[in-house]
Amino acid sequence: MLVLVLILFVVSRGAVEQYHFAMALCDSHSANALTLESVRDSLVRQEDTIVYALIERARFPINSPAYDHSYAKIPGFSGSLLQFLVRETEALQAKAGRFTNPEEHPFFPDDLLPSLVPPYNYTQVLHPPAVFINMNKSIWEMYFEKLLALFAAPGDDGNYASTAASDLVCLQALSRRIHYGKLVAEVKFRESPQDYEPAIRAQDRDALMKLLTFESVEEKVKKRVAKKAMVFGEDVTLDNKEEKRGKYKVDPSIVSRLYGEWVMPLTKLVEVEYLLHRLD
């Protein structure tokens, strides 16, 4: 029963996020309104979502039984509690139409059911032959093998279902941010096709990566997300005591590292893969 309640919570939260994205599609992606500035504004807003998701997950310790295939023993399912919750949540969200949104990418695409709601007519912004890219396997591995232990404390408090639900919120927020690289690549290509076409025709990944890399911008992003982790993650008190100053729910340096080592590099991989098929 608890798992079902958590699935419904994640679905409702996802529905709100999908609504806001649908509005963004209408407002900034229609016709010729897509600009690098509008895409960057969305990426900045998504930083807030990711930082808050990490803070929420940090409420719980590692809770390793949530990831142990031998723990849950769910009839008819072989896998961890986390995998079960993600698969079942995505199946329910698919029936509600979540994955008809071009910016949503499931972690278990083979288990989705058709949408039961009328489809929304999203404006076609992305180049159709290039939309197939899905980096969620890499995102999953990065999150569980590298990131999680950096900000979740060791230990076990028994809140395995809540922990898995928080993991899913983090995963979906990171997936949305990283796959937004398709829009970044599209708008960059539209603004300067002459810069990208030679490398695309040569299928030169290194040249495309060089064109897409702006180290000064990346440094600003890392500093901004670290500052957000400070602002969002500091305890708010009404007294003048200073003992909690400098204590954060998630270490800002880890959020900066997340963006520097994984989010931005994976986003650029999405951009490169998208551009390689932009002239198909």
UniProtKB/TrEMBL annotation:
Q: What is its EC number?
A: 5.4.99.5
Source superkingdom: Eukaryota
Q: What's one GO-annotated cellular component?
A: cytoplasm
One of the entry's Gene Ontology molecular-function terms is: chorismate mutase activity
Keyword line: Amino-acid biosynthesis, Aromatic amino acid biosynthesis, Isomerase, Signal
Q: Pathway membership of this protein? A: Metabolic intermediate biosynthesis; prephenate biosynthesis; prephenate from chorismate: step 1/1
Protein known as? Chorismate mutase
